[in-house]
Amino acid sequence: MNDLASTLVTSATAVVEFGSCAADFQRLSDAQVLEFTRAIADHKRRLGAFEAHAAAEVARRSRREFGHSGLAAREGFSSPEKMLESVTKTTGREAAQLVSLGKALDDASATQELLDTGVTEIAGEPLVLPWDAPIAAAVASGDLSVDCAGALRRGLGRPTEQVGIEALRELATRLVDEATTLSADHAYKTARLERDLIDLTGVKARQQELYERGGFRLYAKANGMYGFAGEADPESAAALSAALDPFTSPRRGGPRFVDPDEQRRAQAIVDDQRTTDRIALDALVELVRVGAGADPQKAQSRMRPLVKLVATEETIRTGIGFGVIENDQSPISPESVAADLCCGDSVELTVTVDGMPLNLGRTQRLYNQRQREALASRDGGCLWPDCHQPPAFTEAHHIRHWKRDHGATDIDDGVLLCRFHHLLLHNNHWEIRRFGREAVDGRRASGSGNGFWLVPPRAVDPEQVPIPLRSKSPVIRHLQRERTG
Question: What residues does the HNH nuclease domain cover (predicted)?
Answer without folding.
Answer: 370-423
